[in-house]
Design brief:
Length: 193
Amino acid sequence: MILTDRIARGVAAGEVSTVFRRWAAPRVRVGGTLHTSAGIVEIVRVDRIEPHEISNAAAHRAGERDAEAVKAALRGSPQDPVFRIEVRYVGPDERVALRSDADLSSQDVAEISAALARLDKASRRGPWTDMVLAAVAEHPGRRAADLAERLGRDKDSFKLDVRKLKNLGLTHSLETGYEISPRGAAYLRAIAG
């Protein structure tokens, strides 16, 4: 589940505590967390509801003006159920500080290289980390679909792989596309010799 920047900031400020989604099946679990633009958000409760149960008060807790606005924003098939998801702000995203840390020791470089080697080894399609890092570095801000196509990949698996690199602090999401983080740039310089 992705939260828009406005909603994520509302959760962080304590102004938003509920999110509504229409899915064939729940895509989040109680106790799970989301990395958002405003920090870490925890899933507190997930309930299946009928759309007519969305009140104006519930809409306000979701950061919307009224129930009709919530219903109008629901995506997916009208036959799919609606879920009310209660959320709470946990704290800042530790990856933000990590991606800014460009002062890499030789041990840091070795640990990043080992983590990337593990990702490559675990992949069913073979090594991918060097290609994805290079594509993001060469084409900052390029749409994920475009980068995936350049690499002969599908968009969804490509985005999942970029997220793995983001978890290591090597990439950063932009409004559109990605860029190499300061940590990622330092790593690429270090391995280039």
